[in-house]
Amino acid sequence: MPIDGTERKEYLVRRERTGLLLPGIVLTVLACVGVIVLVASATGVLPDEIPVLRAADGAARRSTDVSAPPATPRPSAAASPTASPSPSATPSTRTRDRSRPVAGPTVAPTTAAPAACKAGSATVTAVADTYVDQSQPAKNFGRERTLVARSRKDRNSRVLVRFALPVVPKGCTVRGGTLTMTARDATGRKLVAAPASRGWSESSVTWSSAPAPGGGVSATASSARVVWSFSAATVTGARNGFVVRDAAEDAKGSGVQTGFASRDGSGAPTLTIRWS
Q1: Cα angle vertex 207, ends 202, 213, to 5°?
Q2: Which of 205, 271, 261, 263 is nearest to 238 (CA)?
């Protein structure tokens, strides 16, 4: 149908308006998409595919066919093992990581002073005693109640006595000790006590197996109580006990002897150790 001049003019105006309006719409949509992309980039989250609007044949349509490779999601600080610490976690002159030890001034360790020793002493009773007889070299006298120290030619006898040494307090030093025995009678004889050179058994020791006497300390049996005093080294080294003998053995004639009370009755031998 033929179009007159007025209708043609209106047609041209509508077409011009449509041509101006469509590009504006497309530009507006593209601007919105750009804003969305910028916001997503700032927050570190990008979708796998971003809709892209293309204008074709005068009409807008949605397309998911994106030729460019999808953007790789930016790893967050929590997911990345090499993520840089935030400014608040970085030690500075004002703040520091309290989980890490901070070296302080070096302090020399204090050594406790040894406890002061309180001077004292301890007395123990014999745990074994007997005597041996030269005239009966194979006989044991471990069950006798009297311990005989005799001086007579070829018939000498010697006393053996042993103690469990007391425990000295820590920090103390032994200063000496005394051996005390009870004599049956005051013979006035000088008797020598010396540490035993080796171990012995109360129930089996004889003259033949007894430890040999050595140099020792002398004491006189002038009363019932006979006391020998020893140095610290002698008393602490007497773990095998003592050998007591007459200072002058092999006396001629009938000789002389001194009897002492054994541990089986009253007046048992004792050892006292002093410390300070």
Answers
A1: 90
A2: 271
